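Sequence in, structure out.
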Amino acid sequence: MDPHQTLLWPVPRHTAKLPYLASLASLASLVALTAFATALPALAQTSSGPAVSGDVPMADYLALLQQISPAAHQGAQAYLQAHERRCRRSLSSRELRQAMAEGDGDPLLMAMIRASHLQDGPGLTRLGEQVSGTRKASR
């Protein structure tokens, strides 16, 4: 049975899929992620930008990301793995939180989160190859 027959008005089939919901979900994820980063009590706002103090266990931070946004969790994990592979050292949770919260966030990390949201495996791999051991100054 066609679900469109139960509607009281005619709806074109392409409208029923609402393709813009994916972009709305992405926007909602980024808003939630930003709210999360600013709501952490360990983050203190200073005149030079957000200062991330204290170290939260990485497993706890990643678990919180998973609850807020699975795409943010997957993107952060890919970022961590790429950093460890390319820079030969692990990031601390403080460094990851700083990459999330500084300015608009580390553009590479944000791109990896977006690629995870879009389930773009090849794009995520390409982005992982761009991870550098040196941090760029934020805007």
